[in-house]
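Newbie here. two chains, one complex. Structure please?
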Amino acid sequence: MSASAEERNARTPWALTAPALMLFVGVLLIPLAMTVMLSFHDWGQYKGIEPVFILKNWHEIVTDPYYAEMFGRTFRIAILTTLLTAVLGAPEAYILNRMGGRWKSVFLLVILGPLLISVVARTLGWALLFGGNNGLVNKLLMSAGLIRAPIPFMFTETGMVIALAHVMMPFMVLSVWAALQRLDPQIENAAMSLGAGPVTIIRRIIMPQIMPGVLSGAIIVFSLSASAFATPAIIGGRRLKVAATLAYDEFLNTLDWPLGAAVATLLLAALVLIVVGSNALIERRYAEVFR
Amino acid sequence: MAYLELEGVAKQFGAQTVVDDFSLAVGKGEFISFLGPSGCGKTTTLQMIAGFLDPTRGAIRLEGKDLTAIHPAKRGLGIVFQSYALFPHMTAAENVAFGLEMRNVPRGERTERVRAALAMVGLAGYEERHPRRMSGGQQQRVALARALVIKPSVLLLDEPLSNLDAKLREEMQIELRQIQRTIGTTTVLVTHDQNEAMSLSDRIVVMSQGRIEQIGTPQETYEKPASAFVSQFLGKTNDFAATIDRTSAPARLIAGSWSAPAPAGRSGPVTISIRPERIDFGDAGLSAKIVTRIFQGNHWLFQCDSECGPATVIRQNDGRSQPVEGEAIHLTWRPEDMGVRGVA
């Protein structure tokens, strides 16, 4: 009797998590496995998809410099976006953290507000601001005397990085803010009492402690930017493709599902490797701050 | 000649006065405690000395120089925070070295002084540890070493022992006292723990609601409390309503059925206060009944119901038999053990 009771106890967790597990397997693992399998299938203009096992798509991705260019652009944009959000977001979070009660809530809303609006709507907003030579941004910069000729924003990587950075900013600010919350409220006073000036306090005391927050924010921003679809599609347009828009076009325009699947799988694999790798590095480097 | 001097210092946050009319002269090498319940303004006063807050009124002087005009980073005070506020990304040695680095002390001398400071607080060999890998007591020692290594003109301690368990706190009290005696740094301690204040300080500043209630040595504040607040806050005390009768000669002080020759001065209704350990059981005196008696090892604690209200009595466990619960007894004390105050 006790043996069966024990058996029942051992089975309970599985039984309880079964619905969630089934959902996880059904909507994530199975489609993922099917996509990976699909990337090894053949495709022809007239014969459609043939369920065979060949390396044609992978061979094409590896050898054709067109794909190298796509992936190169994808990661270049993701890295620049990450840098921009870190450089702007970390000070933003620091200032936000030092604000008094009411202002803090107001500005928190300003920062998080964009998350409540669809990415498409936000990006279209940027498209309006950028909009050709007569865009608001160019007019403003020119009237301020910062630039002489209008900068092309639409259909350029610069434009994509700016729009993506805006979309991703909340993730960086929140991540750094979480790290700031863990700081001892007296730590700046402690450094000051030992003779440190404001710049030294930020550089030697605050920065090293919020670095894990900046880095985990960077991981989020990087992976979301590298797999972003709406913003590159609208700002980058049809010609300036990134990995996500490339996979989309293969699936829906060329109808070459297997090649699209190979692109998507490669993007996923690259992201998982980069994220897991950098996470391990960060955790080892900042073991003392994380504990 | 006062070393650290506070004169009429006040701090207001909006309409609320947190510290008012705080005047104090601290001698060089003195160990002084600000004692009071939370919200009495003791930490605010300490932060004004440290420079994290600016006083609304009044002056703070160190060796005659106006301290409020000097930026907190230039005051050269050593501060130990309640949370220790160690730099978690630095080792113990780096934490201690930080203040010396800010003072551009050359590397060789720095290493030597850091080593000496950590050894002084009993942490030799812990140089390369990170704070989060240390116990609360060890972190506390690092914080102390970090504050002392810069040879501060004044050491400010903000409830430094309140996060430690009782046994460790007692050990640290003794150690703190020894270290302070050895290096002779003028020290200001903020605490809400009367035992801590009494065992560490040369003088205690008892505070309540932003005002100084009494400044005195531990014995003075305990034996001769200047106000009801002080006598209640520093240890247990019994307050009885009494009357001084000057119509008869000689004048008498009467509390229930206990009476004694009246002290000079006051007359009419007064409040007398007697410490529980100064009350004895006698054949005559204030009649009372024992409500509870609690054995506490080296002493007995009695709660009595007397003519003048509840009374607490502490008797040494000297082996003699003690009255039992419900027994009717008489409370008596020597007139010189009693404090007499006017009725507030």
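Moderator note: Chain B touches chain A at residues 50, 52, 72-79, 81-89, 98-99, 102-103, 130, 132-133, 146-147, 150 (CB under 8 Å). Chain B has two domains: 4-232, 236-342. Thread marked as resolved.
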